[in-house]
Amino acid sequence: LRILRKNAENLKKNYSARKRLLQKQLSYLYCQKKQMRSGGGFRGRMISASDRENAVLLINEAIKSGASCKKACERLGITERTFYRWKKRKADTDSYEDGRPHADHSNPANKIPAEIRREIINICNRPEYASMAPCEIVPALADEGIYIASESTFYRVLREEKMLNHRGRSEAPIANLLNNAVPLQR
Fold first, then answer.
1. 68 to 72, 80, 91, 124: CA distances (angstroms)
2. Helices 114-125 & 134-143 angle (0-180, nearest 10)
3. Is the model's pTM score more than 0.70?
4. What is the DSSP string of the chain?
């Protein structure tokens, strides 16, 4: 019985020492992440492959020691989803490197061609359409049997070209009507 008690005490000491070491490592890595966050914000920050690898190793060790995956991830300041995504990336590409810098950032297939943008601008600058809003221009063109783009596309192009400020026959709105008003006399 004495031998069993002594073995149990030794196991508890080893477990406690290992747990303290793991907590120290996790807190060190957590501090590193916190420093990274202060400069780069929370979401979307770039984490180096070596930091990712260290985090995965620490979390795996914490899970083997009996900690929950969620708590270990919280301690490092990442989500479980991020942890599993990093593990999957390692399994797929044999690397923890972030793929965003090497991703394809080409123009989308449905982007409006430059010729159509110029045509929209030219049409909106014609004298007969100069005082009309896009919600009036598109139906007027449709009456003539011409379709260039949707009404929202006209608005988007004009907004990007800063030509959407005031289109119409009415006068531009006056900003401070209350400040310009004459006070009533009694």
1. 6, 10, 22, 62
2. 100
3. no
4. -HHHHHHHHHHHHHHHHHHHHHHHHHHHHHHHHHHHHHHH-STT----HHHHHHHHHHHHHHHHTT--HHHHHHHHT--HHHHHHHHHHHHHHS----SGGGS--PPPTTPPPHHHHHHHHHHHHSTTTTT--HHHHHHHHHHTT---S-HHHHHHHHHHTT--S--SSSPPPPS-HHHHSPPP--
User: Is the CA virtual torsion 92, 98, 99, 102 positive or negative?
Assistant: negative
At residue 147, φ and ψ (nearest 5 deg) are -125, 120
Structure tokens at 170: 């009415």
* pLDDT tens-digit map of 140-149: 999 999 999 9
Half-sphere exposure of 166 (CA within 13 A, CB side): 6
Cβ atoms of 131 and 165 within 8 Å: the answer is no
